[in-house]
């Protein structure tokens, strides 16, 4: 039984029109490979001086990069390996099974691939993903290993995300309990990505450019590489570090910090030879949470997570793009 999503069948018209074009411009160039600022969270436990320095370095990375990588983060390597093994297994299931509405007893459309609204190869993601809303996960069924691994990982990731969010809030005057009050382990989600080798790797993305709709994201990835971010107007490749987790600021922290921390546009390039796996933990508030800038004058009007999501759904339908935070800029709309 076929395990790969039927990219060519479903998006036949798009591939066909590409094949018919005379000019086949190559989109992916050679990119500078950079190492993200590395934060050793072990420094937090050494003493007040080291602790303060570590928090300041993190805040600087969130301000200047919007991305950083962390070591000594407290998530056991064994758990990360197990998550990866379960992830490999889940994507090895037949495509027909993965695309069933009740696959793994998760909410409908937890399994995603391609992009139903794609109009060209440029906005069609060559990847499949299991997007697990963590409120779905505590049921027991035949997939106990996967579920318990996700549950275990999500618990650890939630603690880590809350710690990071709190440290980053320290210099912004946001009360320490803000994240505890507005985020619960069930309000976040875990997206497991698989990027199959792509025969059109020079002209397609693994994931098209986007920002994340959350406070922050914790990404674990394998050695293959392909994550790129847009920094000062230029795309750069992130050098994978097998010992580190990648952290990136999402739209909500950008709004909360009144633009100080940056939710950078990022993407994953497709790879012609190797498959790649990553798992992204999106640290999100409950739907009712209202996100308001921590300082005045505010760049953004306040909005609830629910409102943000609904606006994205509307914009994606109308324009094919999520638009995102710029919708909420004051003085624009
Ligand atoms: O695969 C990666 O490295 C990043 C994935 C990502 O950006 C996402 O799932 O939002
Ligand atoms: Fe992302």
From TrEMBL:
Keyword terms: Coiled coil, Iron, Metal-binding, Oxidoreductase
Ranges for domain Fe2OG dioxygenase: 186-285
Domain of life: Eukaryota
Keyword match Iron: yes
InterPro entries: DIOX_N, IPNS-like_FE2OG_OXY, IPNS-like_sf, Iron_ascorbate_oxido_reductase, Oxoglu/Fe-dep_dioxygenase_dom
Cross-referenced Gene3D superfamilies: B-lactam Antibiotic, Isopenicillin N Synthase, Chain
One Pfam family here: 2OG-FeII_Oxy
Coiled coil feature spans: 143-170
Recorded family membership: Belongs to the iron/ascorbate-dependent oxidoreductase family.
Protein name: Fe2OG dioxygenase domain-containing protein
Organism whose genome encodes this protein: Hibiscus sabdariffa
């Amino acid at each position: 039984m076929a395990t790969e999503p039927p990219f060519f069948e479903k998006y036949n018209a798009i591939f066909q029109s590409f094949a018919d074009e005379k000019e086949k411009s190559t989109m992916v160039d050679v990119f500078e490979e950079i190492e993200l600022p590395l934060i050793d969270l072990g420094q937090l436990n050494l003493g007040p001086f080291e602790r303060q320095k570590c928090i300041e370095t993190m805040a600087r990375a969130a301000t200047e990069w919007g991305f950083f990588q962390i070591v000594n983060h407290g998530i056991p390597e064994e758990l990360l390996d197990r998550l990866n093994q379960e992830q490999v297994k889940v994507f090895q299931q037949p495509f027909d099974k993965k695309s069933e509405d009740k696959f793994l007893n998760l909410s409908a459309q937890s399994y995603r691939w391609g992009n139903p609204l794609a109009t060209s190869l440029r906005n069609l993601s060559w990847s499949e993903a299991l997007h697990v809303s963590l409120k779905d996960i505590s049921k027991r069924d035949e997939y106990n290993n996967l579920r318990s691994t996700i549950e275990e990982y999500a618990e650890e990731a939630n603690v880590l995300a809350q710690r990071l969010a709190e440290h980053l809030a320290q210099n912004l005057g946001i009360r320490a309990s803000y994240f505890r009050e507005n985020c619960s382990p069930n309000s976040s989600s875990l997206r497991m990505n698989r990027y199959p080798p792509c025969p059109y790797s020079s002209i397609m993305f693994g994931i098209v450019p986007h920002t994340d709709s959350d406070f922050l994201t914790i990404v674990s990835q394998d050695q293959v590489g392909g994550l790129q971010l847009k920094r000062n107007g230029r795309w750069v490749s992130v050098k994978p570090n097998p010992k580190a987790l990648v952290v990136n600021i999402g739209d909500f922290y950008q709004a909360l910090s009144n633009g100080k921390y940056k939710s950078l546009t990022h993407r994953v390039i497709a790879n012609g030879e190797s498959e790649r796996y990553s798992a992204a933990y999106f640290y999100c508030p409950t739907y009712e949470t209202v996100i308001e800038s921590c300082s005045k004058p505010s760049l953004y009007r306040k909005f609830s997570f629910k409102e943000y999501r609904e606006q994205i759904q509307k914009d994606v339908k109308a324009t094919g793009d999520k638009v995102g935070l710029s919708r909420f800029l004051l003085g624009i709309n």
